[in-house]
Design a protein that fits this description.
It is a single chain. By secondary structure, this protein is an alpha+beta fold. It has one domain: Double Stranded RNA Binding Domain (2-Layer Sandwich). About 25% of the residues lie in helices and about 25% in strands. The chain has a four-stranded antiparallel sheet with strand order 3-2-1-4, with helices on both faces. The chain is globular and about 40 Å long.
Length: about 90
């Protein structure tokens, strides 16, 4: 499933990039490149929901932007997450 995430450029003294998902409160990651950050986010989201019941609804791109208007240095993108639902 595709999960929309916010990718942000790091500030001076921080990792070059950070990423978070409104669908997964508290699930954040960083990375040294865009590709590494998105890969880290995919893994973080898979662990976030591991063994848990998935939400019945994930936010669309428009819903994410309505809840979190992008600031300078932020970009909306998505990651493909493979999660098995709890039995």
């Amino acid at each position: 499933m595709r999960i929309f995430v916010i990718l942000e450029k790091g500030r001076l003294g921080q990792e070059p990039f950070g990423c978070f998902a409104l669908d997964a409160p508290g699930c954040i990651t960083t990375g040294s490149s865009i590709e590494a950050t998105l890969q880290n986010m995919q893994e973080a989201l898979e662990l976030y929901w591991e063994g848990e019941e998935l939400p019945s609804h994930f936010l669309s791109d428009k819903e994410v932007l309505a809840k979190h208007p992008l600031e300078e240095g932020e970009f909306l993108t998505s990651v493909n997450v493979r999660v098995a639902e709890a039995a």
